[in-house]
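[agent] plan:
  1. take the single chain provided in the ticket
  2. run structure prediction with default settings
  3. attach structure tokens to the ticket
  4. add a short note for the reviewer (M.T.)
[agent] executing step 1
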Amino acid sequence: MRIAIFVNDYKTEEVTYTTNRMAMVAINRGHEAWTVSASDFVLDHDDSVKAIARHPAKSSYKSSATYLADLQSSKAKVEEIN
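[agent] step 2 finished; step 3 output follows
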């Protein structure tokens, strides 16, 4: 299942935030947990709303700190989702 998790700004997320733990657990259970920040929403030319979402590169994590570091790194997957 693809899950979008809304955060204020992925760059300022802290390890202790519940959203990070929730995303990490979802990834560890085989889901795609994409993070979307408030500034990532765009209105497409056909009036559909899309978002630029981020997903860390690994398929499982043992700590929220590692998950967050991967999410904030340049190696994270970036994709336009709707």
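[agent] step 4 note for reviewer: The longest strand covers residues 49-55.
[agent] ticket updated
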